[in-house]
UniProtKB/TrEMBL annotation:
Its main location: cytoplasm. Pathway: Metabolic intermediate biosynthesis; chorismate biosynthesis; chorismate from D-erythrose 4-phosphate and phosphoenolpyruvate: step 5/7. This is Shikimate kinase. One of its GO terms (molecular function) is ATP binding. Its cofactor is Mg(2+). Catalyzes the specific phosphorylation of the 3-hydroxyl group of shikimic acid using ATP as a cosubstrate. Belongs to the shikimate kinase family. It comes from Streptomyces genisteinicus.
Length: 185
């Protein structure tokens, strides 16, 4: 099995899931999200896993999910925002086309502030988000081949920027790639 074509990392709300789905559609490949894989495997919501067994156990489940996906998913893969915290998970990302979707705090609070489905932002989203980014920013940068800013961009615009950053092309049906010899004439 081949490795993913694109792996998206970045903080909660940066659009990994939304943009990942769009990218998969554009490229005509499958989409996979490790959060969804964990929920399916455990039969429980992420917030319940955090409450029942704690964040450390969630990171173990996440490492297992990332290992399975990088080994057997030749499509677009979105990780959870905290996946990069785990050294073993970071090790699984070496050599892959990883893109860091970045954004500023005000945009993050607008998108996912006080969201109960994301237990790490449930109380004071602005302060918690800043603390998370202080601990994680360098890890996103470390694993990523490219950084794409998402502020003031629609998900479709972010998807375009990801394809540009990785120099991946999509073919619109009916559209043909111009012959470079003709362009020169
Ligand atoms: N570029 C964007 N502009 C505006 N809203 C966005 C953008 N990307 C994602 N969103 C919204 O932000 C929320 C979180 O998006 P999601 O894809 O779940 O992020 P992540 O998977 O990175 O946590 C969703 O409500 C989604 O519709
Ligand atoms: O940043 C984090 O630690 C988390 C991000 C979430 O995924 P998204 O980034 O897709 O929201 C999810 O994995 C869990 O709530 C923990
Ligand atoms: Mg997500």
């Amino acid at each position: 099995m081949s490795a993913p074509l694109i792996v998206l990392v970045g903080p909660m709300g940066s659009g990994k899931t939304t943009v990942g789905e769009l990218l998969a559609e554009r490229l005509g490949v499958a989409f996979r999200d490790t959060d969804a894989d964990i929920v399916a495997a455990e039969g429980r919501e992420i917030s319940d896993i955090f409450v029942d067994e704690g964040e450390a156990r969630f990171r173990e489940l996440e490492r297992t999910a990332v290992a399975a996906a990088v080994a057997g998913h030749p499509g677009v893969l979105a990780l959870g925002g905290g996946a990069v915290l785990d050294e073993g998970t970071r090790g699984l990302l070496g050599g892959l086309p990883v893109v860091y979707l970045s954004m500023e705090v005000e945009e993050a609070v607008r998108r996912v502030g006080l969201n109960q489905a994301r237990p790490l932002l449930a109380v004071n989203p602005r302060r918690q988000w800043r603390e998370l980014m202080d601990a994680r920013r360098h890890l996103y940068t470390e694993v990523a081949r490219a950084v794409v800013a998402t502020d003031d961009r629609t998900p479709a615009e972010v998807a375009d920027a990801v394809l540009d950053a990785l120099e991946l092309k999509t073919e619109t049906p009916g559209e043909t790639t111009p012959d470079p010899r003709q362009e020169k004439q």
